[in-house]
Amino acid sequence: MSDNSRLERAQRFLAVLRHCQVLxxxxxxxxEKGLTLRLPYSEAIVGNPExxxxxxxxxxxxxxxxxxxxxVCVLPQFEICPTLDLRIDYMHPAxxxxxxYGFAECYRVTxxxxxxxxxxxxxxxxxxxxxxxxxxxxxxxxxxxxxR
Length: 148
Known about the structure:
Layout: H1 3-15, H2 18-23, E1 26-31, E2 34-39, E3 46-48, E4 53-54, H3 56-69, E5 83-90, E6 100-109, E7 113-121, E8 130-137, E9 142-143, E10 146-147
Keywords: Hydrolase
Domain Thioesterase: 52-127
GO molecular function, one term: 1,4-dihydroxy-2-naphthoyl-CoA thioesterase activity
């Protein structure tokens, strides 16, 4: 599969998630290594009005979505893969007035479960805001509204 195909699949997947549209999430990059989404800074995601710090829920949504959509980078066909488990370890707060990027990769694919890991960062991926690991259940490819 080409990187353009991965990018298009990721964009189509993201476009149907209403809460992600509200947050303004967009696909930054998609290739065989994984997926990067962008969460733009806005007043709507501020958790602490005194500091302008981003609410942890917005970062959690970014990372759950990034891990979930990263499955399109490794699967030959689109499959519905709901979250089974997600763990996020926050390293430090996100800085105000800066976008946040989420990167995730699928490091193991089994017939029933996909294992992912990633990071949330702002300027430098070497200084992550958070680390994430997630597992996603494979329900099978969907054809004309049916799951096989």
